[in-house]
Amino acid sequence: DDDDDIPQLSSHTLAALQEFYLEQQQREGMKTSQGFNQYSIGSIEEDWQLSQFWYSDETASCLANEAVVAAGKGGRIACVSAPSVYQKLKEQDGKDFSVCILEYDRRFSVYGEEFIFYDYNHPLSLPDSLLPHSFDIVIADPPYLSEECLQKTAETIKYLTKGKILLCTGAIMEEQAAKHLGVKICKFIPKHSRNLANEFRCYVNYASGLD
Prior knowledge:
By secondary structure, the protein is α/β, with parallel strands linked by helices. The protein has helices at 11-34, 57-71, 83-91, 147-160, 174-181, and strands at residues 75-80, 97-103, 115-117, 135-140, 161-170, 184-185, 200-204. It has one domain: Vaccinia Virus protein VP39 (Rossmann fold).
């Protein structure tokens, strides 16, 4: 066999990967020594193999606050493949809203009944308890930048929402987002805890605080 076809990591990428694993070990140590809050951002590490990229703390807070305002008093919020926003919402204990998370990663089952296993390949394979058009706002971050993934996730969003949609995806998906969900790009630019090569944007179909 010829070894030339084996992918090689650049020295910069290798150093970044080593730094990531070192940070991960340090965070694990913090969790055990400080009684880490299992419901806060970072309590579940992002899994790149599942195309998971957590928002920065500031972005997650901003999107969570926007969802609360958009949902209104006593509102219901659904987070579809957006666990870091869900975790920020959970930090707001006592606020007058309810929230659930639809997520493929079963580690999020620690959230109990609010966790709903979700595979975008089966967009309407949802429990009977999730009634159609029963959420005041749906915030979604499809795991892949493809029209197929967006189109299928859009089926789920349209089933769940009473009307309001907050979509987070790549800037390159602007045309498809408008096509499948009727959403328009916002001025607000979401950031991730680790810088991604793809430019991300937010899209809404209502008058939001993100402009």
